[in-house]
From TrEMBL:
Gene3D superfamilies cross-referenced by the UniProt entry: 1.20.1260.10
Pfam families reported for this sequence: DUF305
Composition skew (Low complexity), residue ranges: 33-44
DUF305 domain boundaries: 58-200
Record's protein name: DUF305 domain-containing protein
Region (Disordered): 23-52
Signal peptide: 1-22
Keywords: Signal
RNA-binding is among the record's keywords: no
Organism of this sequence: Noviherbaspirillum album
């Protein structure tokens, strides 16, 4: 997702959004790499953390789902000023609230279980790469009204499907029950939101963007 801000500016923004990361940045040289992907570039250009695939699976899931959630938050934050649909604004607010809460929880678990081990963002986890493909914040942030609604629904639907795929794949691999519960919630909540967005797209007669 390409945003006109430089990647360096993004570190500060993410540190504010997810304080646990900013507080523990000194633990790993790879830490800034994980944060820096969250803003200021195309989501499709995100890269895995060095040696991510060698990390414990739960560690990979925490970091990868957190960065995936953060990109959904960024998209949802555009809805209030660009959409004229109260229903879409309400759902976007829920996405922001739900996923920021889960990001905070994921960061807390990371500090409990993997403090000092650096980042383990793995773009090869099922659902991750395809959910970020062709995600342009430049185009989304430039749109308004019906054009914005259509683009947002298409992008967020693809993004949610990726999260569901990642969570479903993880269910048989995760060791921590807390993460399994979070994955179940991701599957249930985001499937419902996918269905709702599909219904709105049909009802509002929105063309794919």
């Amino acid at each position: 997702m390409q945003i006109a801000r430089p990647a360096a500016a993004l570190l500060c923004c993410l540190a504010l959004t997810t304080p646990a990361l900013g507080q523990h940045a000194s633990h790993s040289g790879a830490h800034d790499q994980g944060q820096g992907q969250m803003h200021g570039m195309q989501h499709g250009s995100m890269k895995s953390s060095p040696e991510a695939a060698k990390a414990e699976f739960d560690h990979q899931f925490i970091d990868t789902m957190a960065i995936h959630h953060q990109s959904a938050v960024e998209m949802a934050q555009l809805v209030e000023k660009r959409s004229g649909r109260a229903e879409l604004k309400q759902m976007a607010k829920k996405v922001i609230d739900d996923q920021q809460t889960e990001i905070k929880q994921l960061r807390e678990w990371k500090q409990q279980w993997y403090a000092g081990r650096g980042d383990a963002v793995n773009m090869k986890m099922p659902g991750m790469a395809e959910s970020m493909k062709n995600m342009s914040m430049d185009k989304l942030s430039a749109a308004n009204g019906k054009a914005f609604d259509a683009m947002f629904i298409d992008m967020m639907t693809r993004h949610h499907r990726g999260a569901v795929k990642m969570a479903q794949d993880a269910m048989g691999k995760l060791k921590h029950d807390e993460l399994k519960n979070l994955a179940r919630n991701v599957i249930d909540t985001q499937k419902q939101e996918i269905d709702q967005m599909a219904a709105w797209k049909k009802e509002w007669k929105l063309a794919s963007r």
